[in-house]
Structure formats: C-alpha cells, structure tokens
C-alpha cells in the first residue's frame, strides 16, 4: 500500500504550545522506517504547510473561536492534500498538531468520498468529545469544536470549511475512551446521535466487548473508516507528552489492541494522530507510542 505522511504542525487550536512540534517528534521516533518495514511505500509531503508560529499569529476578534482565520486557512490547505491522496486510493496518514486539524482531514476525506459515493465513518479515540460550539465552549479553543463542526454544528466558517455542509454524518461517528465532557457538548452529542463508549463503559463491559461493538458499528454503518487518534486518550502516566491530560485513560495495551482489531476489519483507509507535545514528553515516549499505534493500523502483528 502507498502511505502518504502529511505533517500538519498546527497548534492554534489549543491553549498549550508545543503540539506544532509533534510531527517532528513522531518522525524522529522512526515512523517512516517502521512503515517501510511492514512492506508499504511511504511518500512524504516535503513541501509541507506554511504555518506561522502561534505566538506571531492573530487570535482574531472572536474569543469563542480563537485563531479562526488561521485555522480555516491551514485546514483548507490540508483538506486539499488529503482529498488528492484519498482520490488515488492511497492511505493518508496525517500527523498533528492539535486536534483542530481534524477539520481539514475530514473535509478532504468528505470531498473525496462524496465523489465515489462511499459512506465515511469516523472512529474518534479521545479523552474529550471535541463537540463544543462557540456557544458552549468555555475556552474558545477550536480543537474542542472540530468534531461538532465536521458533523454540521457550530460556526458557519468551520462547518463550511473547504465545501459547504457537514463532512460526516454524526450517526457514523463512534467515540472510544471518552472521560471528560462539557455539559453543553454532552447535550449536543446526545442530540446529534453519535455513538460513545466511555471509560466507564470499558470498565463495565470489558475492552474486548467494546471492540466487538465498535467493529459491528462500522460494518453496519459505513463503507470506509477514518481513525482520529488523540494521544490524550491514553493515561497520562504512560503518555505524558500531550496538552490536555486526563487521569484514568486507556492503557497502552488496550490502544494497541484496538488498532490491531480495527486493522483486521479491512475498512480503515486513513488515520490522523494528534496532540503529541514533545515539550511535555519524557524521552519522546509518547511519540514512540504514536509510531506503534500507526504500525498496528498498517498491519503489524506480534505473531
């Protein structure tokens, strides 16, 4: 398979600097070498994305959607690249950056699959819902609004990024690992009809049972699956290099198992890994975990 690595060093969407260096950290952790060792052809977007460092960018006039102009511009560029890769049938692997880059990734995938008539599903592995709007957000950080906008809720400029309308049907979105939701976004997620498996669900039913349900969900809802993996879904005791750590997260083994089983489903055609912050990391361990997770999606097995 041809795998295209798209490095998106964008950290306008969050409150803590450093995730713009996440793609470099993942690259230095041996991503390309690992993917090539699995027999895939790797292509790197060497021209990159021209993004001004956050401290030099204009936050804009809307405190409920900080850096709106800069995020829309950057994610529009990303959408164009993702669409081009997806149109060829190759695998786009997007490295963030904060989770606001999902706006661009999903816009590109949505545009591509509209042409082919395929129904897109999204596995969103995250401690957070990212389903706020400007009305419900307490911070104005767009990384917490990206999934609501991609599903058709929120500011028009985010909802209509790259092309008009939602990028994914909320009924085709499945969350795993949720453990920190704002009241307003929780209400909107219920109204939208997304499927959510929280950490409590995992504790109650066991992770193997949750994975079975996730696989059935995608088999019955979608034609193709995109995985959006936020490293803060992992417990911060093992993945310290992330900007919004929440105690009580997934174990490394659980995350690897989820990726391996999703790979066996045969439906995953794209992935993004976000919120690696090397400033907060220890020995680049979180970035190394990101490499291992990508490898499992791309076919690596223990035996």
From TrEMBL:
Q: How is the cofactor bound?
A: Binds 2 manganese ions per subunit.
Q: What is its EC number?
A: 3.5.3.1
Q: Where does Mn(2+) 2 bind?
A: 126, 232
> InterPro entries, from UniProt?
Arginase, Ureohydrolase, Ureohydrolase_dom_sf, Ureohydrolase_Mn_BS
Reaction(s) catalysed by this chain's protein: L-arginine + H2O = urea + L-ornithine
**Where does the chain bind Mn(2+) 1?**
99, 128, 130, 230
Pathway assignment: Nitrogen metabolism; urea cycle; L-ornithine and urea from L-arginine: step 1/1
The first-level EC class reads hydrolase
Cofactors needed by this protein, per the record, are: Mn(2+)
The family classification in the record reads:
Belongs to the arginase family.
What protein name is recorded for this chain?
A: Arginase
Originating gene = rocF
């Amino acid at each position: 398979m041809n795998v295209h690595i798209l490095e998106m060093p964008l950290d306008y969407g969050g409150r803590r600097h450093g995730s713009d260096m996440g793609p470099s950290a993942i690259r230095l952790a041996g991503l390309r070498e690992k993917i090539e060792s699995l027999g895939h052809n790797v292509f790197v977007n060497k021209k990159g994305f021209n993004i001004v460092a956050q401290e030099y960018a204009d936050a804009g006039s809307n405190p409920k959607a900080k850096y709106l102009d800069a995020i829309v511009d950057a994610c529009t560029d990303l959408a164009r690249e993702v669409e081009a890769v997806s149109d060829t049938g190759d695998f786009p692997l997007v490295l963030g950056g904060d989770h606001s880059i999902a706006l661009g990734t999903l816009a590109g995938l949505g545009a591509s699959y509209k042409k082919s008539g395929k129904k897109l599903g999204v596995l969103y592995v995250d401690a957070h819902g990212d389903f706020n709007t400007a009305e419900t957000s307490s911070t104005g950080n767009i990384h917490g609004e990206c999934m609501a906008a991609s599903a058709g809720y929120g500011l028009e400029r985010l909802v209509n990024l790259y092309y008009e309308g939602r990028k994914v049907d909320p009924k085709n979105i499945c969350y795993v690992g949720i453990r920190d939701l704002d009241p307003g976004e929780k209400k909107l997620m219920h109204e939208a009809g997304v499927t959510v498996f929280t950490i409590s669900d995992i504790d109650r039913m066991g992770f193997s049972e949750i994975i079975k349900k996730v696989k059935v969900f995608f088999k019955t809802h979608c034609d193709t699956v995109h995985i959006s993996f936020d490293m803060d879904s992992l417990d911060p005791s093992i993945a310290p290099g992330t900007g919004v750590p929440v105690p009580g997260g997934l174990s490394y083994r659980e995350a690897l198992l989820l990726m391996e089983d999703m790979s066996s489903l045969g439906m995953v055609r794209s992935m993004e890994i976000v919120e690696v912050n090397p400033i907060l990391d220890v020995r680049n361990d979180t970035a190394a975990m990101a490499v291992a997770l990508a490898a499992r999606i791309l076919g690596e097995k223990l035996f």
